[in-house]
Known about the structure:
Blueprint: E1 2-4, E2 29-36, E3 39-43, E4 54-61, E5 67-70
Antiparallel strand pairs: 1-5, 2-3, 2-4, 4-5
Amino acid sequence: RDYKVTGVQTCALPIYRARYNFVPLVGQVYHLYEATPGDLFLSLIEPEKWTKYRFVGSYRFGSNDVWEVIE
């Protein structure tokens, strides 16, 4: 089940503090990892295939520039 995050809640999501070196594509799912405490980054690599960093969550980038939490 997907949950769409809107309004005030969006600022609280850790994904809005994450770093990434690409332009997110609408509809694409990205995975959030923590390299070191407080150092968050996005990747296309699924958590089942990458255990080097702590997995935080998965998100889909929406057409209105809002990230949707994937559970």
